[in-house]
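Hey, quick one: can you model this chain's 3D structure?
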Amino acid sequence: MQISTILNYIDNGHMALPEFQRGYVWGGDQVRGLFGSLYRRHPVGGLLVWATQSEGAQYRGDQELAPGVVKLLLDGQQRMTSLYGVIRGMPPKFFDGNEKAFTNLHFHIGREEFQFYQPIAMKDDPLWIDVSALFKGGNDGLGTMIAALAAKPEHAPQIGEYAGRLNKLLGIRDIDLHIEEITGADMTLDVVVDIFNKVNSGGTKLSKGDLALAKICADWPEARAEMKTRLSTWKQAGYDFSLDWLLRSVNTVLTGEAKFLHLHERSAEEVQGALSRAGKHVETALNLIAGRLGLDHDRVFFGRGAVPVMARYLDQHSGPMSQQERDKLLFWYAQAAMWGRFSGSTESFIDADLEALSAGGLDRMLDALRLWHGGLRVEPGHFTGWNMGSRFYPVLYMLTRMAEARDWGSGLPLKADMLGKLSKLEVHHIFPKAQLYKANFSRADVNAIANFCFLTKGTNLNISDERPEVYFEEIEANHPGALASQWVPIDRNLWRIENYQDFLAARRELLAAEANKQLASLLGTEADRWLASAAPILAAPAVIGGFATEEEENELVELNAWAQDRGLAEGVLAFELVDEATGGQQAVLDIAWPNGVRQELTEAVAVLIDESAELMSLANSAGFRCFTTAEAFRQYVNHEVEGEPVA
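Sure thing. Here's the predicted structure for all 647 residues.
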């Protein structure tokens, strides 16, 4: 079928994009490459469509479908969106992405090359023509362009050649693309999604949640937009969640099950009601976790797979919740998060916890957790991890908030409602990194969790890289007890850098004791029952990755801010890679965007600075496209995501 006919099909509703398709992700380089290939008449591949009845078809956008059979585009969305955007000069109705990727494409008649508009390079060269303007003007526009060039003596001798090239460019509309159709009564949405995933094996596969949401949107077209609105509200409050995550909570509230297939037969009215209830319960859970445990932002919000279970508990709970019930629920959450219960096979563990909840409430859930992990009491050995990707990094933050540890600059408790730019909490290396590296300590030792504490930004800046044996004396003199409130051993011999390993061991003892004290405070008289046995200390394999230097960390923080300034998603510093089968931590990526820099639309990416080939391989196997420098990531964003021209 000719490209012009395909574009007409899109205009008149005979071709559309299925609801489960994600948005447009191409950048300028791909668009230039597509038009370059078409101009040279190189093959660009065919299209795969799902031929189905328009009545009941689940498609994206607000256009009306033509009656009868409609073709839903399964493979070829990026190409057809680019062709439509350039040839029509505007995006199609189903568009969801960045128009800059195909806006202002130009063609140089002399050099026969495509580039996006660059004012300085193109302003004095009439051989650069606007490709969209040529297509929109058709033969009349072609005549006008040729006449304008013929009027210039320096171009008149080549006018015939130029006219041929412009005609060749216009001829792109007449190129035939092979269209393969899948059709038949057996082609259900589940089957088609499976075909889509196989065809797009090199890209981002659709999840089971995507399929469930596609079915929901068939009866409730506004579902996706309403869910995204809720996610946006939570993001503004500091929590970054995915559509799948929210849909999981809707599922548990409505069906009491984790698997999305249980949503497939539910009516739009049932799902709408469940979303309203789930949204309320999620906010209650977030407020409980932030208010009582102090985990008040996304960076320290671990164990998010527990929230759908909490939403189900809250939905089934009748009447106001007592303090005892609230704290026991939070004890379960903290324990599930601390031991990584939802880091591996999330769906199966949620189902197991929902079953326990249904059979015997919180006590049965805690029993299941204790049997699964082997004990719930924290031991000093649990604080042997290192870097901000460690599971016990959020635990340290939680203890800081719950115990109201004191700032070493002001002596004030580190509460959540502190005002002022310099009052934001930051990680502080008790023994400064610079001093430890000078003393030849390893990166894992330098970034040990037991060497971390949280201080206000202003205090962190003031301490800088002073040795503890010096600045601790000043803190103790100005604010007696402030060091002890952050679980610093009082033995001054341990404050010297030559005794650093002994300091870490002593502080781990104090941290474990505080963790058990705070966990016990959530249980009251039941503390002995649940904290009687110690959690096992597994000999975990060495975890690769993590920041190497303070300069590297600052560079990544700056890169993250740069991405957010451009309206892109916030990256996750020290992103944890886990073994899906066991939930064990495999590696830590310097910074990652697991859902893409445009959430749910672009591929998963990570920046790994000065990391090993082993880590690169692990990240690639986990589906991440990796960049080894901040500049390479910026180039990716500029050219592939935002469609800016290559200089």
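One thing worth noting: The first helix runs from residue 3 to 11.
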